What does this fold into?
Amino acid sequence: MSSIQDINAQIANYEQEIEDLKHQRKIINFKEFVGEKDLKKMKDIQLKVNYQYRDSDDDEHAHWTNAKLDVKFKFEGQEEYLTIEYSEEQGYHTESRYNPTITCNELEGTRTAKRILLKNLDFEYQELDEFISHPHERHNNDWFKIRDMIEEING
It folds into this structure.
């Protein structure tokens, strides 16, 4: 018969294995957003991603989304990084009950990292260079694509 300590140790091992597998899944999902040519030049990828979504029992339109992506890697010998923080709210308590209100949309990083990760998003309202260069003119629908990308990477 196993002791409670043995069972707890086994559970801890399984939980760690599950976390490792989830992280591997996130890396695979991340690589799907990067072109094959760029991926071959990337080394030492460090990825942290988090996506949280909550909805309301009181308002069928209400929800809250928080997303964060933090990636660092070497590209052709140079250190590159990209950090994206995104939050939105929707419901009767916001500007529009039927459309998300973006409450945080921060994007920082090296130009190369931004180009590598965002170039396959097919922005509707801006070219990629415009999106990178003009942070105050970024359209909400283009941010929604970034939100969706983070959700997919998170799995």
User: Anything to note?
Assistant: Residues 4-154 form one domain. Helices lie at 4-31, 36-41, 111-118, 128-133, 140-154.
